[in-house]
Specification:
With 271 residues, the protein is α/β, with parallel strands linked by helices. It folds into 2 domains: 1-77 and 154-219, P-loop containing nucleotide triphosphate hydrolases (Rossmann fold, 3-Layer(aba) Sandwich), CATH 3.40.50; 89-148, no CATH class. The protein is built from 11 helices and 10 strands. It has helices at 41-46, 71-75, 94-104, 109-122, 138-150, 168-183, 195-201, 219-222, 226-231, 238-245, 255-265, and strands spanning 2-10, 16-25, 30-34, 56-61, 64-65, 78-81, 156-160, 187-191, 204-209, 212-218. It has a 6-stranded mixed beta sheet with strand order 6-7-8-3-9-10. A 4-stranded antiparallel beta sheet has the order 2-1-4-5, with no helix packed on it. The longest helix has 16 residues, at 168-183. The radius of gyration is 20 Å and the shape is globular. 39% of the residues are buried.
Length: 271
């Protein structure tokens, strides 16, 4: 597991980005870190692979203290996809971008070729194999960045705003990817403002406010707690808001469930 124990972090300008964060991320789990801009979300996930080190407290990745390990050592276990893909992409072609970390980790050539093909097809990038990743659209760049990390199948996949620039169809593909990786035993940690996506994925949710975890629990519980969401400058998913106004308890998260309820309310049997 990844364990954060009373983690504090202060930037050089004096900004306290994390203030006593304690968090446990178990194997084969899924966590959405949510909150308003500036609440410390990106700072938190950069502690998971050692890009940032706590000024107080500690972070353990499968028992390894991040203060004593290199980013290279931790990256084999924790793969991080940045919010802005331009901060991550550098290779001349999409194919080379995906292959680079595999070469760095010492995978044999035949395995690299196999994994590159797999990642290209998985993220629908095969047509861009020989294109420069920097010439692609924002959403396509994001998928390349995800592919370049997913290709080595880290135990913990950490993504900063993975749905940014993605349409609904791409979001569904991303949701299926997360489900596939979890079936294979991986953990997913994502920072997101997308309450609809977090609700559909049914991740555990950590609400971060001013560098502290305000609430932690199942999506169904946290994303229907209106007062908590207000403190984190978030709104409830649209279905939840609708059924709260209808005074339906517990609130409805699934479209199919909403359809059944509305048909029942209208006195009609579901076809």
């Amino acid at each position: 597991m990844i364990l954060m124990e009373d983690v504090w972090f202060r930037y050089e300008d004096g900004t306290e980005a994390l203030r006593g964060v304690t968090l446990q991320i178990e194997d084969n789990s899924a966590l959405a870190v949510m909150g308003k801009s500036g609440s410390g979300k990106t700072t938190l996930i950069k502690h998971l692979n050692g890009l940032l080190k706590p000024v107080k407290g500690r972070v353990l990745v499968d028992g390894m203290d991040t203060r004593e390990a290199t980013v290279a050592q931790l990256s084999r276990k924790v793969g991080l996809v940045f919010q802005n893909p331009d901060h991550q992409l550098f290779a001349e072609t999409v194919e080379e971008e995906i292959a680079f970390p595999l070469k760095n980790f010492g995978f044999p050539p035949e395995e690299i070729e196999k994994r590159v093909d797999w990642a290209l097809n998985l993220l629908d990038l095969a047509d861009y194999r020989h294109d420069s990743p920097l010439s692609l659209s924002g959403g396509e760049k994001k998928r390349v960045a995800i592919a370049s990390v997913v290709a080595w199948k880290p135990k913990y996949l950490v993504l900063d705003e993975p749905t940014l620039g993605q349409d609904y169809g791409r979001k569904l593909e991303l949701k299926r990817l997360f489900e596939k990786l979890r079936r294979e035993g991986h953990s997913i940690i994502m920072v997101t403002h997308d309450v609809e996506f977090a609700a559909e994925c049914k991740f555990k949710v950590a609400l971060l406010v001013d560098g502290q975890i305000l609430a932690l629990g199942p999506a169904e519980e946290i994303l229907s707690a209106t007062e908590l969401l207000k403190k984190a400058s978030l709104t409830a998913p649209q279905l939840v808001e609708l059924f709260q106004r209808l005074e339906v308890k517990p609130p409805v998260f699934e479209v199919e469930e909403a359809e059944r309820f509305i048909l029942k309310l209208a006195g009609k049997a579901q076809p």
